[in-house]
Amino acid sequence: MQKQEEGRRPKAFLSTDMAEMQAVLDSVCNGVVVVNHHGIVTFFNTAAETISGLEAKNVIGQMVDDVIPNTGLIRVMETGLPEVNQRQFIGKCEVLTNRTPIIKDGMLVGAVGIFQDITEFNEVVTQLEDIKRLKSTLESIMESMHEGIVVVDKTGHITMLNKAYSEFLAVDPKAVVGKHVADVIENTRMHLVAQEGKAEVTDIQKIKDNTCIVTRIPIVKDGEIIGAVGNVVFKDIRELKSLAGKLHKLESELEYYKEELFKAYGGKFTFESIIGNSQQIEWLRDVAGKAAKGTSTVLILGESGTGKELFAHAVHNASRRRQGPFIKVNCAALPENLLEAELFGYEEGAFTGARKGGKPGKFELANGGTIFLDEIGEMPLAMQVKLLRVLQERELERLGATKTIKLDIRVIAATNRDLEAMIEQNQFRQDLYYRLNIFTLQIPPLRERTEDIPLLCQMLLKKIRNQIEHWVEGVTPEAMALLMQYNWPGNVRELENVLERVINLMDDETMIAPEHLPSMLKKLNRTTAKDEDGDGAHELADIKDDAEKQAIMRALTAAEGNKSKAARLLGIHRSGFYQKLQKYNLLK
Predict the structure, then answer these.
(1) How does DSSP assign 475-506, residue by residue?
(2) For the segment 201-251, what is each residue's pLDDT rounded down to a tens digit?
(3) d(CA 92, CA 261)
(4) Which backbone phi and psi does 88 adopt, to 5 degrees?
(5) In terms of C-beta density within 10 A (0-12 exposed, 13-18 middle, 19 or more buried), how is residue 95 classed?
(6) Domain range holding 563?
(7) Residue 361 and residue 407 in one domain
(8) How far apart are the C-alpha atoms of 575 and 567, rounded to whole Å?
C-alpha cells in the first residue's frame, strides 16, 4: 500500500510535505494527471478517476497515451509550451483541460494536465441560454402590449414597467425601476397586494385625470408571495363604456341573425298554435308534449288537412333541439331519381350535372335539429331501405363519397295513409314501420271534434283578415250551425278555404251568414231538416231557430260554460247572446 502511494507521487514533488500535497490534490474537484519526462503517469488524483472512469492503480506506471489518448502531455513536453483551455473527450465525457510542462532547475522533468468535466456545464449554459431567450420573449411581449403592466417585489419596489404604462405615466421606465411603487403611481395598492396576497380584479383607480380600471394579482412561488403584477385594463372608464356599447351592438346583431336563421330553418308553430278545446286535442297536446322531451322518432297519422305538420313543428319547438334547424321533406313531391340526392346529398362529380363542390342533403342540413319526413307513405321501397339504415346507424354517406357523416337528429314522419295495410300489400317495409312507430300521434278529423269549429273559425278569420282587406267580425249562429253540421272531408284546410272564399265574395257585410256559405253546406242543412221531419213541414223560421240553438249549445260546450267566451266564438255581442239564451231557455 505504501509503495502504491509512493507510485502516485510525482518526483517533482518529492519532499517531506509529499503526503500533505497529495491530500490537497486528491481534494480538488478538477482532475490532475502528472507524467514524468518519459511520458509515464506518475500521479492520478481522485477527481481524475471520477471524471475518466479509470482507476489510479491501472493508470499509474503506464504510458499516458496508452490509457488516456490525445492528452497532449507528450506534445507539451516536446514543445515546452503550455496549452490552455483545450477541449477534449475522455470516454463520453467532454473536458476542458490545461496542459503545462514541469521545469526544475532548468530541466524538463515532466508535464501536468488539469481538467474539469464541462458536460454538465454545457447543459447549464444551454438552460441559461433558453432562459435568456424566454426572458427576452416575455419582455418583448410586455413591451408590445397595449395595456400598462407593472411588476413589484414583495416590498413594493418596481422591478419592471412596460412601455405602455411608462408612456401613460410620462416616466422613464429605467429610471423608476427600484423605486417604491407608491412614489411612481398615485393611489396605487400594488405594495398592499404584495404584502397581503389578496388579488384585486377590475378595481377603479384614479391616475392623473383618468378613472382607470386596473387589476392587481399577487405573484406566488413555492407557496410564498414574492411580489405582485398589475395591469391597466382600461386607461379611462369611457373606453369600457365604448366597448360595452360595441358588445351590446354585436349581441343585438347576433340575436337578429339567430332569429332570421330560426325563421328560415326553425319550427314555425308551437303547442299554443294548435287550436281546440276538445277532449281529443287536449289529450294529443299532452302526449305530444311528453314526446317532445325525448329523442325518439315520432310518427304522426291523420287525414289530409288535420294539422300533422303543425304538430311536427310544435314537437320540435318544445324539444331541446328547438335552437337547431327544422328541415321539412315532402317525400311525395320529389321524383324518385332525385330523392336520394336530396335526402343524403352528393359529392362533386357524383353524377352528370352534379354541382361543383357537391351539395349537403336534407339529413345533413338537419344535423343538430329535426327532420320532418312528410308523406312518408309515398316513399319508394328502394329508398325505404336506405332510410332504414340511416335511422339505425345515425350516419350517412353522400352520393359519390367514401367517408361517413355522423348524424345527431330527431326524425318526425307523417302520412295520411294506412301503413299497416300497405305492409300487407308489400308497399311499405315492416322493419321501417317498426323503426318509425315508436311514438305515434293519431290526429282526429274535424268531423270528430266539431266543438272546436268556433275556435278554429275565430283563429282562421284573424289569419284571413291579415291577407284580405275586408273586415269580418265573425259568424252568425245560423251559419255556425251549418259549419258544425258539415262533414269536412278536407278537415281544417277545407274550413280555411271555405272561409277565405266566402270573405272574398262578401260585399260590405261584417258577419258571415248562411246565405254567404257554399251551396253544399246549405243543401246539407235542407237535407238534415227533411230527415228530422219526414214530411218537410217545418217552417223556415223553426229551422233557423233550431240551427241557432244548436250553434249556441256547441259554443257553450267549447267555451266550457263561459258565456262571454261563447259569445265571442259566435261573433255576437254579449247582450244579444244573453237574449238568445233566454229565448231558448238556456240560462242556468
Answers:
(1) E-HHHHHHHHHS--TTHHHHHHHHHHHHHHH-
(2) 888 888 877 888 888 999 998 889 999 998 887 776 566 566 656 666 776
(3) 69
(4) -155, 165
(5) buried
(6) 540-584
(7) yes
(8) 9
